[in-house]
Amino acid sequence: MSAMGSPEWRHEQADAAGRWRASLGQLRDRADNLDASVVLAAREIDRQPTEKAREHYLDMLVKLTHVADGVRALVDGEMERVGVRLESIRNFDPDASGESASG
Question: Quick one: pLDDT at residue 94?
Answer without folding.
Answer: 55
